[in-house]
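Input/output pair, single chain:
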Amino acid sequence: MLDLNKIKIEDLSSTLHHINDDTIRNIKKEWFKTNLKERTRVNTLIEDLSTYLLSSNLNSVVGIDKFVCKDFTYGCTDFIDTFLQKNKDYQIIEREYSYYSLLGKKNTDISDLKENIPVIVSLPNYYYGNHRPDWADFLDICEKRNIDVHIDGAWLTCAKNCDLDLTHPSIKSFAMSITKLGFEWNKAGIRWSRQKSIDSITIRNHHSTWINQNILDCTNFIINNHNIDHSWNTHETNYSKICDILGVERTDFIHVVKQNNKNLGISKLLDQMTISTSLA
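Output:
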């Protein structure tokens, strides 16, 4: 058990890590010992995983019922890669996930967004710690300039106090995954879309045998043995104690604190304070 009297600011990490506590480790351990009696069907998992990802009592997603097309993805990275491949011309705004710019695309101020060119954004946003302060203005500009918005919701599973409203007509797709819950070793997620499109994700979902069966089975095991709010429910008290002792700023992400406006990782300290638990 971690001695809080001995922690120091250097114990925080400059690299952000997911929670990897006893519960997460036990799920992984039990999965590798499991003998499956039946395999997981893609269509069944899509519905069950969608329900699981939207089951948080700490956050909410409004308007998802308008996104009638649901596809299984290999995490949000799959969602991003498919967007980048499909849209040879796209836009990124400032303070965004650096992965979006790997193909050389530069950030654009929202006032300079071009008409008819789609944009990908992360919400909640890693830098701001929740919503973007310019979100309302951004959506207004996108509507006036006929810009389609695609939302990477990867950080929502490690957040609290985040209420996403997807009812704005410019928002065309939204994705979430289990990665930031601590399950980056089994990439799995859902993409919700207003309208069906033809791309690598929809083709793979149509030919369901192309989806890795082990990933489907493992995802089904995870969501049946894990509460999506586990990280905050388990670690919030210790998170607050560490912030008070070290004098760092809280965020709405369980594995992130801020010092001098810089994100720092707290998860390794939280993992050391976890009391051993078994699967429910």
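Residues 21 and 271 are 5 Å apart (CA to CA). Residues 230-246 form the longest helix (17 residues).
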